[in-house]
UniProtKB/TrEMBL annotation:
<dbReference type="GO" id="GO:0030286">
    <property type="term" value="C:dynein complex"/>
</dbReference>
<dbReference type="GO" id="GO:0051959">
    <property type="term" value="F:dynein light intermediate chain binding"/>
</dbReference>
<dbReference type="GO" id="GO:0007018">
    <property type="term" value="P:microtubule-based movement"/>
</dbReference>
<dbReference type="InterPro" id="IPR026983">
    <property type="entry name" value="DHC"/>
</dbReference>
<dbReference type="InterPro" id="IPR042228">
    <property type="entry name" value="Dynein_linker_3"/>
</dbReference>
<dbReference type="GO" id="GO:0045505">
    <property type="term" value="F:dynein intermediate chain binding"/>
</dbReference>
<protein>
    <submittedName>
        <fullName>Dynein heavy chain, region 2</fullName>
    </submittedName>
</protein>
<dbReference type="Pfam" id="PF08393">
    <property type="entry name" value="DHC_N2"/>
</dbReference>
<feature type="domain" description="Dynein heavy chain linker">
    <location>
        <begin position="1"/>
        <end position="138"/>
    </location>
</feature>
<dbReference type="InterPro" id="IPR042222">
    <property type="entry name" value="Dynein_2_N"/>
</dbReference>
<dbReference type="InterPro" id="IPR013602">
    <property type="entry name" value="Dynein_heavy_linker"/>
</dbReference>
Length: 226
C-alpha cells in the first residue's frame, strides 16, 4: 500500500514484484471473511428466525448495536408485523409497551429486560410476552363482551368495549363469539336466525356510530368488525 501511494500509476503498480501474489492472497482472505460472516449471520438467524425478515446489512447493524435498544426500533416493524415502536427506559433498558402504526399502545403484562442480555434472548422474550399480553387481553375482552346483550346493548356500552382493547383482540373476540353462537345454533337445530339478528343489530350499531365524531384509532377497530 505504501508503494502504491508513492507511485499510484497503474503500470507501476502491476509491475511491482509480487503484486499478483499479494492481490490473490488478499482476494482469498476477503472470500474467507465473507464466508465466515455469512455463516455467523446464518447462526444468528437460526437462533432467532425473525432475523430472516431483515437483510444482511440490517442484521449486522442490529448485532453491532445490540446494547442500544432505542436505535434498533426502526428494524422492529420488519421482524414484528404491526409493531412500529416500543417504550424502553433510557437507564434500565426495560421494554414496557408496544405501539402500532395506527397509534395503538399495548402495555406489556410483564416488562421485558434487555440490559446485559443477548439480543437474541431478549427478542425471544419480547415475542413471548407479546403473545402472553394479547392472550390476557383476549380473555378480558371475551369476559367483557359476554356481559353484554348484543341485541340490547347501548352504543355507549359497545363503544366502551371497542375503546378498551386493541383492534386485533376486538376482531378475534367477535370471531370467537360468532363461531360459538353458530355452533350452539346448529347443534340445537334451531337455525341461525338468532345469530343473524344479533349480527344485524351489531352492524346497525356500527353504522350509526360512523356519523359520530370518533378518532382514527376507533375507526380502525370498528373497521375490523364490518
Amino acid at each position: 500500500m505504501k508503494k502504491v501511494t508513492q507511485s499510484p500509476r497503474i503500470l507501476d503498480v502491476v509491475g511491482m514484484q509480487g503484486a499478483q501474489r499479494l492481490l490473490d492472497r488478499l482476494a482469498d482472505m476477503l472470500s474467507k471473511i465473507q464466508k465466515a460472516l455469512g455463516e455467523y449471520l446464518e447462526r444468528e438467524r437460526a437462533s432467532f428466525p425473525r432475523f430472516y425478515f431483515v437483510g444482511d446489512e440490517d442484521l449486522l447493524e442490529i448485532m453491532g448495536n445490540s446494547k442500544d435498544v432505542a436505535r434498533l426500533q426502526k428494524h422492529l416493524k420488519k421482524m414484528f408485523a404491526g409493531v412500529t415502536a416500543i417504550d424502553v427506559g433510557e437507564e434500565d433498558r426495560i421494554i414496557t409497551a408496544l405501539h402500532s402504526r395506527e397509534g395503538e399502545r399495548v402495555d406489556l403484562v410483564q416488562p421485558v429486560h434487555t440490559k446485559d442480555i443477548r439480543i437474541n434472548d431478549w427478542l425471544k422474550g419480547l415475542e413471548a410476552e407479546m403473545k402472553h399480553t394479547l392472550a390476557r387481553l383476549l380473555g378480558m375482552s371475551l369476559a367483557h363482551f359476554q356481559k353484554m346483550d348484543i341485541e340490547t346493548v347501548t352504543p355507549e356500552e359497545y363503544m366502551e368495549w371497542l375503546d378498551k382493547f386493541p383492534a386485533q383482540v376486538i376482531a378475534l373476540t367477535a370471531e370467537i363469539w360468532w363461531t360459538n353462537q353458530m355452533e350452539i345454533a346448529l347443534s340445537d337445530g334451531k337455525g341461525v336466525e338468532g345469530v343473524e339478528k344479533a349480527v344485524s343489530a351489531t352492524l346497525a350499531l356500527l353504522a350509526d356510530s360512523v356519523f359520530e365524531g370518533t378518532n382514527l384509532l376507533l375507526e380502525e377497530r370498528r373497521s375490523r368488525l364490518w
